[in-house]
Write a structure and sequence with these properties.
This protein is mostly helical. Helices cover 65% and strands 0% of the residues.
């Protein structure tokens, strides 16, 4: 069960401030791992509630990561104690840095920026659909405007010439993409630019 930062903070406060037992807190939160709960409580005792708040802007710089990796690999400190000193919400974060370091060396370690720009799968799908609808809407508006402009010309029995089409495209180009307009008219771009000159 994945808990929010607010829920994790609440668990820590229940233990530290309300003296609630670890096993009771664990049960109340879907049998949350007691080892992880102890880590969070130690984090809370060291940094208080600030460590759980405003995490969206947290950046882990390369130098900090390399120092932490060095403390584990060269100094023999435990991953949990180094993670606690850095205020990491989960020791597995440092474990991930170590894994990358072992696979790629120092070159693999980079700054880590917040994930606030990540979007959920449903939101991503909505963005794609919205973009397609906007493009389709623009194409339909361009088609309508083209038909309005060419309607009087098509009333002539011979139809619209390429030169007349080019004039209409030039006029509508301020409002619509040239690619859309050329597709609507069925005119190649070379023909359009020939008549434009």
């Amino acid at each position: 069960m994945r808990l929010t930062l607010e829920e994790k903070l609440k668990m820590c406060e229940e233990h530290v401030l309300n003296k609630k037992s670890l096993s009771h807190i664990s049960e109340d939160n879907g049998n949350y791992d007691i080892g992880n709960l102890k880590y969070l409580i130690n984090l809370y005792k060291k940094f208080e509630k600030d460590v759980f708040l405003n995490r969206e802007d947290k950046i882990y710089y390369r130098d900090t990561k390399l120092l932490a990796i060095s403390r584990v690999l060269k100094n023999g400190e435990s991953i949990r104690s180094v993670s606690l000193d850095l205020g990491l919400l989960d020791p597995t974060i440092l474990g991930g840095w170590l894994k990358i370091y072992r696979a790629k060396g120092e070159a693999g370690i980079e700054d880590t920026y917040p994930r606030k720009n990540y979007v959920l799968k449903d939101e991503r799908a909505k963005i794609i659909v919205d973009k397609k609808l906007i493009e389709e809407n623009q194409r339909l508006r361009a088609e309508i405007e083209y038909l309005k402009k060419s309607q009087s010309l098509t009333q002539k029995l011979e139809g619209v010439t390429n030169k007349e089409k080019a004039l209409i495209v030039t006029e509508l180009r301020k409002e619509f993409k040239i690619e859309i307009l050329l597709e609507i008219t069925g005119m190649a771009s070379s023909v359009y630019y020939y008549h434009l000159s």
